[in-house]
Design goal:
Low-confidence stretches: none
Radius of gyration: 19 Å
Distance between the termini: 35 Å
Largest sheet: none
Number of domains: 1
Structural class: mainly alpha
Shape: globular
Order of helices and strands: HHHHHHH
Length: about 180
């Protein structure tokens, strides 16, 4: 049985730009989810860790998105007050922790979907929905944020393809010497 951090490292998701194990977002994610990750591994030990991780990240994404949706109006009002009182430059210094958590979870979740060779269109739809939610709170460009999320999807896909190509070459080489 492995912990959540090891599962992230095993699929090489720790190479994502947004994954910093010492960051507050990672610490909160880890503390909130590692116990459940260990519990599901114990309950279904024959399943691959990546499958448990998919369930956990799906759950975390839904919960994080729901948390933000529940507080959307109060967060928008708070951001507006900061901008009016402090100006845009100083207001940008305040960080919305739930939003930052959603960004981390979304990158991990989409990376894993790519890693598992899941459907592009579903991943793209989730990336777009999440980007639109974040833009509604803090502003920005939905397409830029969606593209950034999808880069994680493709990074996961590339890791799997490289492993497959390496495995295929090694298999071919072994067959050559049989």
């Amino acid at each position: 049985m492995i912990d959540l951090k090891q599962a992230i490292c095993d699929i090489k998701a720790d190479q994502l730009n947004c994954v910093h194990f010492e960051s507050l977002q990672w610490q909160q994610f880890y503390q909130g989810n590692n116990g459940l990750f260990e519990k599901v591994q114990h309950a279904k030990p024959t399943r691959a860790a990546s499958q448990h991780l998919l369930g956990l990240l799906t759950k975390a994404h839904i919960e994080s998105l729901s948390q933000i949706e529940a507080h959307r109006s109060s967060v928008a009002a708070m951001n507006q007050a900061f901008e009016q009182q402090l100006g845009k430059e100083h207001a940008a210094n305040f960080h919305y922790q739930d939003g930052e958590q959603l960004v981390l979870v979304t990158h991990l979740w989409l990376y894993l979907q790519g890693y598992l060779n899941m459907d592009f269109s579903l991943a793209n739809d989730h990336a777009e929905q999440t980007a639109a939610t974040l833009v509604s709170l803090k502003g920005g460009d939905t397409q830029v944020i969606r593209t950034d999320f999808m880069a994680s999807f493709y990074q996961g896909k590339n890791v799997t393809q490289q492993a497959s190509e390496t495995h295929g070459f090694i298999h071919w080489l072994k067959n050559l010497f049989r």
